[in-house]
Design brief:
There is one protein chain. The protein is of the alpha+beta class. Helix content is 22%, strand content 30%. The protein folds into 2 domains: 134 residues, 2-Layer Sandwich (D-amino Acid Aminotransferase, Chain A, domain 1), CATH 3.30.470; 161 residues, D-amino Acid Aminotransferase, subunit A, domain 2 (D-amino Acid Aminotransferase, Chain A, domain 2), CATH 3.20.10.10. The protein is built from 7 helices and 18 strands. α2 packs across α3. The two termini are 36 Å apart. The structure holds pyridoxal-5'-phosphate and 2-OXO-4-methylpentanoic acid. The site of pyridoxal-5'-phosphate (PLP) has 12 residues, from β12 and α6.
Length: 333
Amino acid sequence: MSYLKFQYSKTDYNYVQYHRDGTWDDGKLISKDSLELPTMATVLHYGQEAFEGLKAFRRKDGKVQIFRPYENAKRFQASCEYLLMPKVDIEDFVEAVVKTVEANLKHVPEYGSEGSLYIRPYMIGVGETLAPTPSPSYLFGVIVTPVETLFNGSLKPVNLWVSNYDRVAPQGTGQYKLGGNYAASMFAQNIARKKGYDDCLFLDPSTHTKVEEVGAANFFGISKDNIYITPNSPSILKSITNMSLKYIAKNFLGMTISSDNIYIDKLDHLVEAGACGTAAIITPIRSLDYHDNVHVFPTQDTVGSVTQKLYDILTGIQKGDIDDPDDWLVVVD
Ligand code: PLP
Ligand code: COI
C-alpha cells in the first residue's frame, strides 16, 4: 500500500483541551503542532489512546461540509469508555471538530480534486503512572490535514495477503478505535508489503476461518444475487463508511443487505469485493492470497459495476453533488 497521498502536513491550527481533576478546561486552538508530555505519561508506556478519523469536503459552491461527525463522536465515546478515559460530550466533540475545520478552511482541497481535509480527533492519557493504571489527566485534541486516498489512487484494485497473525483478541479491542490495534497490525502489514502485496486482510481471531477486515478498512462483498455482504464479528471496527454504504446499497440501489460470515475458503459467491473506510474510501479488492492459494475475484483488474455505483453515490454525497440522504453532513459556515 502506498501512503504517498495520505501524509501529514501542518495546517494553521489544532485544538487542545485538557481534563484535570475531573473536569475539562475550555479548550483552545493553538498553532504549535507538538506537545510537551511527562516522560511517564500513561500514553507513552501503556498506550492509553483512542482516536477518530473523518473528513471535510469542499462543495461545488465553495462551502465546506463534514461527513457524519456525530457517528464519529459516538464511536469515540465508546473507545474512550473502554480505556477508562473521560467522555467528550457528543455536541462538544462536533463543536471542536467544526472549530478546527473553520480555523483551517484554506487547507480544504478544491472541489473536483481527489482531496479532502482529514480530521483526526484523539485522546491520550497525559498524567504520570508507573503502575499500569488509568492516567489522572487527559488531552483531547483535533488535528486536520489535507489528504488524498490511502491506497495507490482511488478505485485501483489491490492484492491482499491473508495474515496468519491477529490484530485483536476475540473479545478484545477490535470494535474500538485505539492506537494499540494499529501497533498490533504493523507486523503483519510489513510481511504483506515485503511479499509484494498492497496490504493484509485479517481473519477472525477465534477460528481463523472467516474474513474480518483490512488493517485500516472494513471488507465488503457483492454476491451473485446482488446482496451487499459484510462480516458479522464483535472484533471488527464499526466503520461509518460501511454503515453509509449499507444505507446506499439499500436505499439508492435497492439491494439486500446482509451481515454474515464470509469464510475465507468459500469466496466463489462473491462477484465483487472491496475495502471501505474514511481514508481508503472504496478500494476494490482484486485478490486474496490465503496460504499461497490466490483467490482472484471475477472483476480482476477492473472496478465492479456495483462498487463503482457505491463509490459514485458515496463521494457524490460527500462533495454535495447528491442530496444529503439523512442528516449526514454538517456544513461549516
Ligand atoms: N477498520 C479499521 C481497522 C479502520 O482503521 C478503519 C478506518 O477508520 C475502518 C475500518 C473504517 O472505518 P470508517 O469508515 O469509520 O473510517
Ligand atoms: C481512517 O480511515 O480514518 C483511519 O483511521 C485509517 C487510518 C489508520 C489510516
